[in-house]
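Re: the pair you flagged

First of the two:
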Amino acid sequence: MTHALSVIDHAENHTYHQPTFEETGLNDPIAHCDLIDAAHGYARAAQAADEAVEAARTSATTLVNSDIEAIEAINVEWEAKAVHYWGPRNEAGFTAEVKSRAKGDLDAFNQAAEMASLRYQQCRAASLRAELNAEQATHAVDAAQARLVEAASRLTARKAMTA
């Protein structure tokens, strides 16, 4: 695969000029290809890292929503159990009964709370996995950047040696 530098001479009519190696001072096509390959690798790694970070953000939001749903389901279950075993509750000395949100079968509330807790744990695992993937992708970007800088340094050193 051959890589060539492209420069737009006239942006309005999109004419392209592809300089020769002599014009660019890049007399070593292998070094030139190494630099281009390193730049492409960096671009791919950066894009993958961006996608992984976005996935981690989305996963974190899903985890928070799942946590809220689990807490609410557990609270309804607790309230239903309390009403079932101890009767209706009164607030701060008032004798008027507080309307319970928990009307129904205790087993259904228990099952709903268990399912909400399970969903939370599933979301937690997915979130941890997404965070790990984002961290690994960030390390890959750092490595790709180091390869790009190394290729550019080698090219600069070769150019200085031939000058």
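Second of the two:
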Amino acid sequence: MENKLKEKYSSIDSWILAVRRTGSNSDSTEDTYLSAFGLFLEATKINPDEIVHRWNNAKVYIDDNKVIHNQKEEIARELEAKIRNYLFSLNPEELTCTYRGKLGDTIRSFLKHHNIQGINVPELSDSDGCPEYIENPLTLGDIQKIIDNSGIREKAYNKFLESSGLRPVTLRKLKIRDIDSRPKELETNIKVTFSEWLENPNDVQCVLVQCPKKVTKGKKVDHHTWIDRETLEYLKTYLEARKIGTRKIQPEELTEESYLFVQNKSPPTLVSKQSMSNIFSDTARQLGVKEGKFDVHIYMLKDYFEKQCGKGVDDLRYIDYWEGHVSYGRKVYFRSYFNPTVIESREQYLKCIDYLKIKGIAEESKTIEGLKKDKEKSDEQFLLLARMMVGYLERQGETESEEYKTLKRILEK
């Protein structure tokens, strides 16, 4: 249906070309726009080419009764009435306000491209029949539960998204070489590749993820992000399973051209973004993890990444850059003047690592603040938990952290 719309209506074809040229050069964005606009045209029986032709040829004239007629105003009133009737006829019990809002955005985009003015496309609100939507983002506990109850592939995939901020559409296309290539500008004593981590985990705090523009949503520019050591542990387990094979996974010879994530079948094929999203939502639903009245979705891991990194970075533009918002960041075009070096980027990411951890503290101990509260209840329990924390930090190679040093001082007293 989507391609047929472009073939049938020249006004739609030129609009979509402009969207791809000036906005997101993404197949999924094009499909979303065409699907939404197609629903609008089907419901209203509007011919977009006819509307554009009428608008471009509209005139102002005086009739025989000396009444001034502005044909553009007449077209605008007619079109606005149809748009309002359509948007307000949508059932809020079946479509979320977010989706209904996107339909309005799509119509505005088409009108703006063809310079059709004077039409007020309504912004839907609670008073327009939309139920109040309260955002309840995923918590650390939610993510822990989902990952703990996932398969080895899903554990690695979900934690990769949570620690990198990438979109699923980008992650599914990454290859082993994208986490195993060393930038020339880095000094040799700074280890940032997957192979270097495998050789000596304690020397590598985070691994560089290079995202070529061909795998990104807009396919506009290259960028990079990072993954933490928890992600690397999950990824190592998954890749080793692919090498030796399991009940679900056929043995596979991995090379630098192998995709990081594949379908569980032989021969391995590119993992499906939708299937991974469905598995995530199904797992969350089975565990009783929900966002208000709506099911959680895998993009919430990206939201969690934003929230957690916001606690660590000195400049929020780094978060946009890591997520791939390099051509249309937070309402400005950051790529035109913000292009951090790998060294600068790594320094900022290291400030976020503690905020992105999902295990360790939860599994083996508690935070310092939690331990202090426990001490009031039981010194014996406090010391036990403190020793567990010290053991965990030693296994993670974090003996230089302030947390480790504080706990060691407590235990030595």
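The mean pLDDT is 80.

-B.
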